[in-house]
Every structure is written in structure tokens, then in C-alpha cells.
Amino acid sequence: MDQNLSSYIESLHNKKVLIFGLGLQGGGLDAALFFAKHAKAVKITDLKTAEQLQATLAQLEEKQFNYRFGGHSLEDIDWADLIIVNPDIWNKKEALKYLEYARENKKDIETSVSIFLKYCPCQTIGVTGSRGKTTTAQAIFTMLTACSKKTILAGNIPNCMTLQQLEKSEDYDFAVLELSNFQLHSLEVSPHIAIITSISPDHLLSYQSMDEYLLDKRRITAFQRGADWLLLNQDD
């Protein structure tokens, strides 16, 4: 295994991890399964009830977790060494005060995507945009695979377990990630190749202004380095 990735996984062995938002789309499930293998202890919290989350919980029956449903708690924030935030949380105002408390108390806050981009040893390609990002990400994956390049497809793609694929990423040439605006919201690392398919006012119900929405989209390239690439749609 890649040394940086191996060192990171080893560092988790003594950490208590809080999965902040289990959800129904697979992101919280992916994180729970990954950290169940590597962390000292894992706790899962969600605003939804256990009944509402049953489809996801059924896939965790053989694992041992502590749960809190129907709300979050400052006690859980205090307990955790590492907090893994489900991207949908950024759209839930009732949960944001807990993350603000976590920041004030210098807690380590990450997402599945941020961890993947930090520790994936192969070349990463991130795709975002108001429209066309899923089609573009899948097309890039298909083309690279057709060219005999071992490629991971992850991020905002249904059933593509991002962290589950991180452990085998050393054997791959590329990782293609579709990135939603909420996955970009707190990101402090950028892919080697960033692609923005288009920008239009399609998701403004979650933002106070178009400028605020653009700030999230710009994060895909905000932390790129000199040898990295940004590809834009010239017409949009």
C-alpha cells in the first residue's frame, strides 16, 4: 500500500470517529464501513429516525456501532477525535450549529471526498457543474477504461463507495470523481485535473445568492498546484 495512505490508515487505529449524517444515498454507509475496519470506535448520528434510515441500517447489521437518531448532540462532538460529515448536512440548518461548535473546539472535520483526494496515490480527475457532470464523469471513466487505464469512478455517483475504493487506489492509474456543490463546500484539496461542465442558477434554493453558489464550485480548483489542470466549458 502507498506509504501516505498506509500511514493515514494506521493513524486511525486510536481514533474515535463520528459519522455525522448517515443518510440514504450511500455516503454515510461508505464512511461507516471504512472506519469500522480501521478506527478505534465509530458512532453514527442522523437527524432522521431509525425507521427512516432502515434501508441503510440493514447494510450495517453485522457491524458494531453506537447510534443516535432523530438529532445530533454536542456530547457526540466532544467524544469524537474525527468527524466525517455527510455532504447533505450543509443543506440542513439545524445541524450546522454542531459543526460550528466542532470548529470552535478544534475538531478534525473531513468528508469522504476530502480524505480520498488527500490520500489517493493515483491521478485524480474531478468533475463538477450545474449540469452534465454525471454524464461527463462516466464518459471519462469509459474512455480511460477503453484505453486500458485502470480507473476508479467515485464521488457523487450512486453506489460508488468512495472510501472503499481508496484502499485499492494504488493499483489504479486514474480516479474520476463527480463532485456536487455540497461535496465541494468544505473542501481544502483539489483534484489534479478539475473540470467544470457548466454554471447556471439551478440550485439556488440552497444558497442566498449566485455568488455564494459559485464560491462552492470554485473550490474544485482553489487548491490546485502548478502542474494541475483546469478545464472549462468555453460556451457556458
Description of the molecule:
- With 236 residues, the chain is α/β, with parallel strands linked by helices.
- It has two domains: 3-110, 3-Layer(aba) Sandwich (Rossmann fold); 115-232, UDP-N-acetylmuramoyl-L-alanine:D-glutamate ligase, CATH 3.40.1190.
- It has helices at residues 3-11, 27-38, 54-57, 74-79, 93-104, 112-119, 133-146, 162-166, 181-184, 210-222; strands at 16-20, 41-46, 66-69, 82-85, 108-110, 123-128, 151-155, 174-178, 193-196, 229-232.
- It has a five-stranded parallel beta sheet, sandwiched between helices. Strands 7-8-6-9-10 form a five-stranded parallel beta sheet, sandwiched between helices.
- Helix 8 links the parallel strand 7 (151-155) and strand 8 (174-178).
- The protein is globular and about 50 Å long.
- The termini are far apart.
Task: Produce the secondary structure layout.
Layout: H1 3-11, E1 16-20, H2 27-38, E2 41-46, H3 54-57, E3 66-69, H4 74-79, E4 82-85, H5 93-104, E5 108-110, H6 112-119, E6 123-128, H7 133-146, E7 151-155, H8 162-166, E8 174-178, H9 181-184, E9 193-196, H10 210-222, E10 229-232
Parallel strand pairs: 1-2, 1-4, 2-3, 4-5, 6-8, 6-9, 7-8, 9-10
Q: Uncertain spans, ≥5 residues at pLDDT below 50?
A: none
In what range is the share of β-strand residues?
A: 15-25%
Radius of gyration: 18 Å
> Portion of residues in helices?
25-40%
- State the helix count: 10
Helix/strand-derived class?
A: alpha/beta
Principal-axis shape: globular
How do you describe this structure in short?
The protein is built from ten helices and ten strands. With 236 residues, the chain is of the alpha/beta class. The strands form two sheets. A five-stranded parallel β-sheet has the order 3-2-1-4-5, sandwiched between helices. The chain has a five-stranded parallel β-sheet with strand order 7-8-6-9-10, with helices on both faces.
